[in-house]
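Hello support,

Our group uses your service weekly, and this is the first time we've seen a run hang past the timeout. The protein is Isocitrate dehydrogenase kinase/phosphatase. I'm not sure whether the cause is the sequence or the server load. Input pasted verbatim:
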Amino acid sequence: MFPERLDAPQAYDIAKAMMDGFNRHYRLFRTESARAKHRFETADWHGQQRAQRERIEFYDLRVKECVRRLEKEFQAGAQPMDVWHQIKLHYIGLLVNHHQPELAETFFNSVTTKILHRTHFHNDFIFVRPAVSTEYIENDEPAARPTYRAYYPSRENLHETLVRVVENFQLQREFEDLPRDARHVLAAIEPRVAPMKLRANFQIQVLSSLFYRNKGAYVVGRIINGFTELPFALPILHGAGGKLVIDAALFGEDDLLALFSFARAYFMVDMEVPSAYVQFLRSLMPRKPRAEIYNTLGLAKQGKTLFYRDFLHHLKHSSDRFRIAPGIKGMVMLVFDLPSFPYVFKLIKDYFPPQKETTREQVQSKYLLVKHHDRVGRMADTLEYSLVAFPRDRFDDELIAEIQKFAPSQLEISDRDGDGQTEVIIQHLYIERRMIPLNLYLQEAFDAGLSDPQVRRQMERSVIEYGNAIKDLVAANIFPGDMLWKNFGVTRGGKVVFYDYDEIEYLTDCNFRHVPPPRNEEDEMSGEVWWRVGPKDVFPETFAPFLLGNPAVREVFMRHHADLLDPAFWQGHKQRIQQGHVHDVFPYDTERRFPPGGGAT
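Update from on-call engineer: The timeout came from a worker crash unrelated to the input. Re-ran successfully.
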């Protein structure tokens, strides 16, 4: 029960110290995000990537700072539970009129659970449910920037309005030819607007901050006409001569889902009221969960909070059981899922077959590498949790037996809260978006028969996408290691994404070699490797026997991606990366780019 009176003198001071800790965190987070504009203007691509990586660490550093302060000044861990009840109530009071209340609640949870024992993880002590609404939050100070700007063009001055939309971001670098680029955008808009009668509410709404990621800056907004809303995004890049260009025009939910994909790096966005940005973006992409939108904005802890709330809600309103995930079982990760829930749960096994020379710590470091790296639309983001509790009666016995066999150190089955409910508690867990394993996707095509033209197109698209995925990873300085089809998945949009990280390496750490010619007839007839192989040596010519056993797959692969079997391809990319080159990887088809003179190189 919550106390009727707030009479603990230290409770308010602790709550205020926690709020100070959060405010410091968000101030630093926002400052770093705002600096992305200058890095973009000065083409500081390595600095942009470094800032994206370092910003991920901000949250945990601030939580640790706050915990140290609370222990040092207030001996917070020794405070009785009724004081902690009062701390939470004081904290709720401090959230009134706050511009980031949902993030502050999550920060409170992070600090509190570091101080209190884990059995106290319920709503009396932390924010299992939000206590403060995020609706209609605005900064009413005179100099404050609104969440979005509205423009009211006519059909006649739409071109001038598009120019003004871009100029209002006040980028401190000259455009190559902004009126020309605006004409390209207008030409892309016209087919969508021309058939319409322009209604009284015809307008363009544009979020007030650009969205920065790698070498691009994106204008994000929507066109409203009557009851129709058209989401759009305009990528701004550096052109061949170093001046700015609008590179393409993206329209509709599918284009924006690709831009904000869970397989891409987080954006840098300067947001005073993040919940307002999320609400706007959700109106553009109603199929995208709010948790994933927070993630794409770099607010991963809030994404985790919302994901867990969504998960608990789903558990309450479903009755199916967790099971071993379909597909070929991995040697390093044990994977299970809930059929009705679009995510998979992965835990590291306690032991691996002899051919897998790795450790739990090394596998965790690979997942951390992916979290910090540019995922270029080809590596799935993961949510990492510790001490996750599931209802025991929702687990198949076969799954429990599998965990007990391969990962007993990760499993606890108990009534940890003493409420009569037996739980399955997993010590350490990764959660990813569920995809169709590429090997199963191809097998479906083979089973249906390649004589069907539509089925053959599915197979060909998959093989081409597989090669494109590897090439995008290479451009991002990633060698996937284990390139078998089973380690790649097909997303809802047909994109092929890599999701098995235990063998990935930086491309620049690998040594790509030709297979030496056999020394004699015995070497030539041998099924064994007769040459010396270093720990980071890779022989691309040896990929074919593992990947191209099916003649139809081989034909498509060799037509589009034969260069992946040539060490020169890998060596060339490695050399360019070592020389400091940062490749362009576009979150849209290159066919969408505006013509030469209006697009980047």
